[in-house]
Amino acid sequence: MIYILEDDTSIRELEVYALESAGLKSRGFAEVEDFFNAVRENAPALVILDLMLPGGADGLEVMKKLKECSPRTFVIIASAKGSEFDRVKGLDLGADDYLAKPFSMMELISRVKAMLRRSAATESEKLVFGDIVLDKLEHMVTVSGRNIELTKKEFALLEIFLSSPKRVFSRDLLLERVWGGGVLETRTVDMHIASLRAKLDRVDAIETVRGVGYKLGVRYDS
C-alpha cells in the first residue's frame, strides 16, 4: 500500500489515479491526523510526502514522526521546494528519495516502482516482531525506531528467536547455536536472555517456557 499526504486536492487525486492505473494500490490524505491514524492501523510500504502541509504542519517533522512509528516505511518527498539545499536537507533527515514539483506522473511511477523494489530487497534482510526490527544487513536492532546496542551474542540470540517465532528453543540448543556448545553452563543463556530483555525494554518479548527453554512471547501492544 502507498499513502500520499498532499493538501492540494487536484495533485493528490491525480497521483492516486496514476498509481492505481499502474496497478499500485494507493490512498490519499489531506490531513496529517487522518494520515497518522491510517499509519497506526495499517503501515504502508511507501509514503509520498508533500512538505507544505495544511495548518502550518512541518513536512519534515511529519517524516520524523513517521520514521519513529513505522521505521520500515520508505518516504519519497514530493515538494515545490526543489533547491539543492532543500533536497539535501530532506534526504539527510531520512527521506529515501526526493521529487521536485512539477514532475510527470510517469516519473512518479518510475520512482515509486524503484523504491518498492528496494523495499522488497530490504525486507528480506529484516526480521520483525511487534515494534522490534532486526536488520541483518546493517547488524542493527531498533525498538519503535530507537537504536538498541546489543552484544554479538545478544544479537545472535534475538535473530534466532525472530527467525522462528513459534518455536521453543531449549537452553542446550541455544548454547550450541550461539556459543558452539562446549563446557558452558545453561545459566549463561539465562543471563544473556535477562540482559536482552532489559535492553529491549520488552520483558514479554521473550517468554520462559518452564522446564524447556525460551520462545518469543505473544505479540504485545507496542
What does this structure look like?
This protein is α/β, with parallel strands linked by helices and 222 residues long. Helix content is 44%, strand content 21%. The protein has helices at residues 9-21, 32-41, 59-69, 84-92, 105-123, 152-163, 171-179, 187-200, and strands spanning 2-5, 26-29, 46-49, 74-79, 97-100, 126-129, 132-135, 140-143, 146-148, 169-170, 206-209, 213-216.
Summed up, the helix count is 8
> What are the segments in which pLDDT stays under 50 over at least 5 consecutive residues?
none
Q: How many E strands? A: 12
Q: For the largest beta sheet, what order do the strands appear in spatially?
A: 2-1-3-4-5
Taken as a percent bin, the fraction of beta residues is: 15-25%
The major sheet is characterized as: 5 strands, parallel
**What structural category arises from helix and sheet content?**
alpha/beta
Order of helices and strands: EHEHEHEHEHEEEEHEHHEE
- The proportion of residues forming helix, as a percent range, comes to 40-55%
Radius of gyration (CA) equals: 21 Å
